[in-house]
Each structure stands twice: as C-alpha cells, then as structure tokens.
Amino acid sequence: MKKRLLAMLMAAVFAVSLTACGSSGGSSDTEGNAAETEDASAGETADSGDKKVLRVAMECSYAPYNWTQPDDSNGAVPISGSSDYAYGYDVMMAQHIADELGYELEIVKLDWDSLVPAVQSGTVDCAIAGQSITSERLEMVDFTEPYYYATIITLVKEDSPYANAQGVADLAGASCTSQLGTIWYDVCLPQIQDADIQAAQESAPAMLVALESGRVDLVVTDMPTGTAATVAYPDLKLLDFAGTDDDFEVSEEEINIGISVQKGNTELLDAMNSVLSQMTADDFNSMMDEAISVQPLSE
C-alpha cells in the first residue's frame, strides 16, 4: 500500500526536487508554469481585499518539505491555478510567516530550476523550498536567516554490506546516486573513495526507488528526507555520521536552508527575519517532525 501511494505521489507531483537542499539555484524557461502564475502580477506583493497576498513558490513535490495532496486536510493550502493543495514543512512555515505578518498566503507550484528566476523577476515574492543558502545563489537572490538546518545522511538497505558503516571511509567502492542539482550529488558523493557514481536522479522518489530496487548500494540526502524515506521503506537504514571524524565535508552554507527573496527587497527580508528570529531550533525540529508524521509517504 505504501509503495502504491508512493507511486501515485510520484506520478502526480514529483518532478525535480531537496534541500532541499541543492548545490545551485539553476535557471530554466518558466513558460511551462505560466498557467499556474498568470493570475499573480509581477513586482510588489499583491493585494487581496484588505490583506496583502504573499506569493510563495515551491515544488510541491519534495516531502517532507512540501508536497501536493487532493484536499485541505491538516491545514493544506490551495495551489494557485490548481484544484490540488500543498502541505509540508515549507507550507507550515509559509503559513506561520504570513499569519505573523498579516498576509494572505498563495502557494505557487514551480519546478526546481524555475524557483530562482521567479524570485528574481518578481513573479513570486519568495521561495520557501528547501534551498541551501549557497554563495552562488546569493549572487542572484537574497536569503533570510536559516529556517532549517539540514544534516547530511546516507541511506542503505538493512541487508547491505554497507549497513554497519561508521563513516564515509566505510562506503568505499559503493555504487551510489542522489538527486540532480543537489549538494548530495555534486559535493558528497565524490567524497566516497572509488565510488561508482551513477547518473543523478530527477527527483527524491526516483532516488529512493533506485536504492530500493537495488540499482545502487546507497544514496546520500538530508535528515528530513532520510527520515521520511525510512517510513515509506521500512527496509532502509539511515546512517548518520554527524559528530564523527569521518563525516561528509560540507560548509555551513550548504546545510543551512533559507527563504529566497528578490535582491534589494529589504522590507520583506527584514519582516521575515523578524518572524524567524522568534523561533528556535527546537521550534524548527518540532514543525518538521509534524510534517513527517502527516506526509503522504507515511500513510
């Protein structure tokens, strides 16, 4: 049943996703998303009655950060131009920020490579989509303070010869993959000695299917994605090398997740930071735990 739900979810909503947590903002033609955003005017935050509307972009396909579902259960928010709804950690955070600032929330569904261009152009006000605060992205957009801190982990099958690995060195020679355009694939996998690095996967679910089906020995991802995966696939084992002398080497900017806004939009940036400054790491983790508990993959 879980696998069928996963397949349905993949077919319906997963395109290119984490972060999350990617190594580059990317750029692509956003014309394919025009129908979803045609009602949203570019530039300043739109007005809706007596309230301004905060237009927030995300993939709606990257559980537990964000996903698509058919109804408004658990407080899901309608996706602009669609009959579907979005929910997940990013939606929860977006709703919290909108509520605190007195905005109406509008979720705009875009593919991963369209997020940064949409923010740059003002088509949306911000992207809350599991984006790492990298120096490359900072050349194109501004970022808030982190709204999540993502630990890098490894997933293997429980019966894998790598199941008892205590560090990156113990993964030597493994066949591996991860998601396209992420630090997991671009930065972490090359650190595994003699790794047989397979082609990057277009989405997080595709990455997990590659592991579950035995096409690779392991995948590298972040803690929320890994935790969610072990719910969907009980035969997977999560390896966390954090705190050891043999962890993946990543910079703070690569694991800190922020909200991107158009360069120079200091009013929105400062307003969002004022909300985030009132939250603690425990608040972030509690919200993420709640998202994981209700994500479609866990049903």
The CATH superfamily of the largest domain bears the name Periplasmic binding protein-like II
The total tally of domains equals 2
Name the average pLDDT.
Answer: 85
Number of strands: 15
Q: Approximately what portion of the residues adopt beta-strand conformation?
A: 15-25%
Radius of gyration: 18 Å
The percent range for helix content is 25-40%
Shape: globular
What is the string of SSEs from the N terminus onward? Answer: HHEEEEEHEHEHEEEEHEHEHEHEHH
CATH fold name of the largest domain: D-Maltodextrin-Binding Protein, domain 2
Description:
By secondary structure, the chain is an alpha/beta fold. The protein has two domains: 18-149 and 255-294, Periplasmic binding protein-like II (D-Maltodextrin-Binding Protein, domain 2, 3-Layer(aba) Sandwich), CATH 3.40.190.10; 152-252, D-Maltodextrin-Binding Protein, domain 2 (3-Layer(aba) Sandwich), CATH 3.40.190.10. The protein has helices spanning 2-13, 34-37, 89-101, 115-121, 135-138, 183-188, 204-212, 223-232, 252-255, 266-276, 281-294, and strands at 46-48, 51-58, 67-69, 77-78, 85-87, 104-109, 126-132, 142-143, 148-149, 152-157, 175-177, 196-197, 218-222, 236-239, 256-261. The N and C termini lie close together (9 Å).
